[in-house]
Amino acid sequence: MPPTPTTPTPPTPEDGVVPYDWSDPDSYRPPTDASSHGRRGRDGGLDFGDHAFWERLPFRGVPWTRVLMVGAVCFGLWFLLDAPSLQHSAQVSPLGTRRTVSLDVVGPVAALSRTLGLSSVVGSSDRALGRTPGGGPTLAVPTRRPKPAPLPVTVTGTTTTTTLPQLDAHPTPAAPLRVLIVGDSVGLDLGQPLVNTLAAYGNVTTYLDGRIDTGLTRPDYFNWPAELQVDLTNQQPNLVIVMIGANDPQGLVTPDGSLRFGQPGWDAAYSARVAAFIAEANTAGARVLWVGMPPMQDPGLDAALKHLNALVQVQVNHSKGGARYLSSVPTLGDRQGNYAAFLPDASGAEVMVRTPDGIHLAPGGGARLAAGVANAIHSEFHVQLAPGSNQIGHHH
């Protein structure tokens, strides 16, 4: 005969348990005596009876709408503070609908953040934490300088050629070699060591303008031709060293629409931009030394940059003496011209020449390439660089 089920007896305050009315959560008031702290159960832990631990927390009963509202306010503040950084990420993203929508949404908020000065909060935090912010689309400010004299122009049939003055074979204090170095993040890896290398020579003035995440395909993000014009006006160089291209294997916009990298017409559009960049420097009286991109660890990126290097070489050859091309492959590649993270120095010791990302130059690689550029200035432009005191331009 089955046992007769027993009816459980409701707990009482004397049992150390306060009954909880589930139909009215706000009616619960924990007792003030010692029993409110729970009692020890059989396992030695606290036993709160029929009350879960969360029911005893001070935020018990907070409406979910209030939690949602607090979360929305926090998200809004973060969005307003970090909107410029989000805009930067959208600007350097691939062309397409997603990028367009992101810019439409983030753009007005980023403008408001800058107007209110809130974006400086994030910048100050990054600097305090030692973070390096990305290079933004800001142009150098031109200074008032006398315009250089017009360059002689020779017209032959339908071809117009700008006659460039010869570089001084022996720079002097009165007529120094004025060098402008421009580039993307890989160009910056070369630029600073090159400034240091040229500092060992006398009568050379250098100026470095490097911008990370930039190139010639995206003037909507950063307009390099406009930046170059400002640098040419301010510095009046007679030699421009260019190392740009690591970010360029991507879509570009033309007056006839956008072109994907590898699509018919892309090569012609990019080549025209390279030619215009060289011509801009030549028109201002400066020759150009274009340094090609080094081998990359990623096979896809390596193939893309080899293709870009070939396009640049063709335009350099068409410049009729206004530019020279320097391949970085013999300096930074292995014996087969492939990617190498370490290379032997003159003593045979292995030196790290590339960073772990397989793209950028390590300090050893930057110094190695800078020495190659200094040799090219001598061999390609017949400039005699002699050791001595020097002037160094500023880096921005």
Give the helices and strands, then pairings.
Blueprint: E1 39-40, E2 46-47, H1 64-91, H2 97-116, H3 119-128, E3 153-156, E4 159-162, E5 177-183, H4 185-198, E6 204-210, H5 224-235, E7 239-243, E8 252-254, E9 257-259, H6 266-283, E10 287-291, H7 299-317, E11 323-326, H8 329-332, E12 342-344, E13 350-352, H9 363-381, E14 391-395
Give an overview of the whole structure:
By secondary structure, this protein is of the alpha/beta class. The protein folds into three domains: 13-56, no CATH class; 64-125, no CATH class; 168-395, 3-Layer(aba) Sandwich (Rossmann fold), CATH 3.40.50. The chain is built from nine helices and 14 strands. It has helices at 64-91, 97-116, 119-128, 185-198, 224-235, 266-283, 299-317, 329-332, 363-381; strands spanning 39-40, 46-47, 153-156, 159-162, 177-183, 204-210, 239-243, 252-254, 257-259, 287-291, 323-326, 342-344, 350-352, 391-395. The strands form five sheets. A six-stranded parallel β-sheet has the order 11-10-7-5-6-14, sandwiched between helices. A two-stranded antiparallel ribbon has the order 1-2. α7 (299-317) links the parallel β10 and β11. The radius of gyration is 33 Å and the shape is globular. The N and C termini lie far apart (94 Å). The model is unreliable at 33-38, 46-50 and 126-161 (pLDDT under 50).
Give the C-alpha Rg.
33 Å
Structural class assignment: alpha/beta
Number of helical stretches of at least 4 residues: 9
In the sheet with the most strands, the strands line up as 11-10-7-5-6-14
The number of domains is 3
The counted number of beta strands is 14
Question: What amount of the residues lies in strands?
Answer: 5-15%
